[in-house]
Amino acid sequence: MTALLEGRTAVVTGGAQGIGLAIARTYVAHGARVVLGDLDEAAARAAAKELGGEEVAVGVRCDVVSAEEVAALIDTAVTTFGSLDVFVNNAGITRDATMRTMSEDDFDLVIQVHLKGTWNGTRLAAARMREQKSGAIVNISSLSGKVGMVGQTNYSAAKAGIVGLTKAAAKEMAHHGVRVNAIQPGLIRSAMTEAMPQKAWDQKMSEIPMQRVGEIDEVANVALFYASSLSSYMTGTTAEVTGGRFM
């Protein structure tokens, strides 16, 4: 197997678990060194240890809503491993409720974490990458940002916003050698989705032509593609990893 990210350094936000950790694991398997940023510092450190320890991975606390903390995360990557080649904006939360019952705080928080957090990561990573005239930014959106989901006016708006942000940033950074792309996962197996009521699960499964749930590694593989030179002529694009749902 060719190591697609040999010698490169990647930062992954929300990297201590789930899709973020799967992306980091795939990157390490392809020769990258990774810095995991997560609100849960202990979990980030434990995940970094699991990935192979300080030779290949470090975990630090990072609240993506804070530009200072995102800047510190990037500085950690550069001082520890010598460069910043890939940045994955994956950190996210949900605060689902219908519009009628959603609090203003729960709307604001989801927009802040997903949309402002992705803007912080994209803006600060791009500023560093343009200096070296190369880099790949991967933004994790969601199928909810394409179709809108009941109970997710905050999340769907934020995830749609990430697609628009990705395209605008891609246009700004293309001539600097920095690529910016997005991924929209559909129904992916995780602790969160497996806790879903059976009725909701069955409804979602009925919408998937491939008739199965996606695995986190299937999202990670697309993040690997976008991070590597395999996608060297792609920027501003959105990959749907959905099994064909809502195509």
Share of residues in strands: 15-25%
Structural class: alpha/beta
Largest sheet strand order: 3-2-1-4-5-6-7
Low-confidence stretches: none
Structural write-up:
- By secondary structure, the chain is α/β, with parallel strands linked by helices.
- The chain has a single domain, classed as 3-Layer(aba) Sandwich (Rossmann fold), CATH 3.40.50.720.
- 47% of the residues lie in helices and 15% in strands.
- The chain is built from 9 helices and 7 strands, in the order E-H-E-H-E-H-E-H-E-H-H-E-H-H-H-E.
- Strands 3-2-1-4-5-6-7 form a 7-stranded parallel beta sheet, sandwiched between helices.
- Strand 4, helix 4 and strand 5 form a beta-alpha-beta unit.
Keywords:
247 residues; Rossmann fold; KR_dom; 7 strands; SDR_fam; alpha/beta; seven-stranded parallel beta sheet; globular
Short description:
With 247 residues, the protein is α/β, with parallel strands linked by helices. It has nine helices and seven strands; from the N terminus they run E-H-E-H-E-H-E-H-E-H-H-E-H-H-H-E. The two termini are 32 Å apart.
Topology diagram in text:
Elements: E1 9-13, H1 18-29, E2 33-38, H2 41-50, E3 57-61, H3 67-81, E4 86-89, H4 104-132, E5 135-140, H5 144-147, H6 153-173, E6 178-185, H7 191-194, H8 198-206, H9 216-227, E7 238-241
Parallel strand pairs: 1-2, 1-4, 2-3, 4-5, 5-6, 6-7
Helix pairs in contact: 1-9, 3-4, 4-6
Family: Belongs to the short-chain dehydrogenases/reductases (SDR) family.
Keywords: Oxidoreductase
EC number: 1.1.1.100
